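Incident log, support desk, overnight shift.

02:14 A customer reports that sequence design results differ from what the structure should imply. Their input is reproduced verbatim below. On-call engineer (initials T.W.) acknowledged and began investigating.
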């Protein structure tokens, strides 16, 4: 009975299927969101004063960010100190989509250890923004612990063995209320990650990444029948000047691309030549050489 409605459903076809394909193609050409994918790991924590540590992490982001896959929080295993570090190598994988870079995701870490009575004691808090440029990155998160606000609270904390800690650990990722908090630096955590971005530049955002450079391909030949340039007939006074310009243009192009142009013939009796204003352009840009009409069959494409 459960499979009967599925078996009787109809697959859309005709105009409905064509509309769906057109909609998907339109979304691919004009993206409305950009994607951020993060794959990394919490490698280790520097712990010269503690025998064992474990870490709880949480990813904090803005209201415009939506998690499409992955976990926003987790906890590592307990690692024993070796050579003044506690190695976790705990994986982190998460993917976001958003329309606004405000509230860029941050990684909040809370490192805990055991005291002499076997109780969990905070050993450090820290936060760092994920990198905004694609590629592999290594980040060191400086940690700190809150201190008692008065001498009496410090004495009672030492007497009962209860260290001060944050009720909400995500406060370290916000600036509100941090000005009245007393902290003490204590160790750091290493995090390595690989960042992948999609459609960020398509929405008009610039993250300062200039490693992706668009390399234009070779210019396509333009048939004479499709040319929109105006033609003119040379007078005997203009013919020597045009020949000299063509020779200088040919010499300049040979220095950069020796095989880009065919052998040049002097315009002793040219049929069509571009206006003189076109030949006065900078020959290094290549626009004049790509649009000059050579003597020959007008039906054949010209470079």
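02:41 Re-run completed on a clean worker. Output:
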């Amino acid at each position: 009975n459960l499979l009967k409605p599925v078996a009787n459903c109809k697959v859309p076809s005709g105009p409905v299927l064509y509309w769906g394909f057109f909609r998907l193609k339109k979304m691919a050409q004009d993206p409305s969101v950009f994607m951020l994918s993060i794959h990394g790991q919490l490698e280790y924590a520097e712990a010269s004063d503690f025998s064992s540590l474990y870490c709880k992490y949480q990813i904090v982001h803005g209201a415009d960010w939506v998690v499409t896959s992955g976990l926003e929080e987790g906890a590592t295993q307990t690692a024993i100190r070796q050579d003044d570090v506690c190695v976790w190598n705990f994986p982190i994988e998460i993917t976001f989509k958003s329309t606004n870079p405000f509230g860029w995701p941050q990684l909040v870490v809370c490192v805990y250890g055991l005291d002499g009575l076997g109780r969990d004691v905070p050993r450090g808090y820290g936060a760092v923004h994920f990198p905004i440029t694609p590629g592999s990155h290594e980040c060191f998160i400086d940690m700190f612990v809150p201190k008692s606000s008065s001498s009496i609270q410090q004495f009672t904390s030492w007497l009962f063995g209860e260290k001060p800690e944050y009720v909400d650990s995500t406060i370290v990722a916000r600036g509100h209320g941090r000005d009245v908090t007393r902290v003490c630096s204590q160790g750091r955590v290493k995090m390595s990650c690989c960042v992948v971005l999609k459609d960020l530049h398509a929405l008009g955002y610039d993250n300062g990444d200039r490693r992706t450079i668009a390399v234009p391909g070779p210019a396509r030949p333009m048939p004479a029948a499709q040319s929109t340039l105006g033609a003119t007939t040379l007078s005997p006074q203009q013919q020597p000047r045009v020949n000299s310009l063509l020779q200088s243009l040919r010499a300049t192009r040979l220095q950069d691309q020796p095989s880009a142009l065919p052998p040049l013939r002097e315009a002793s009796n040219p049929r069509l030549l571009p206006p003189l204003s076109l030949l006065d352009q900078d020959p290094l840009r290549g626009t004049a050489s790509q649009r000059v009409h050579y003597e020959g069959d007008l039906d054949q494409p010209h470079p």
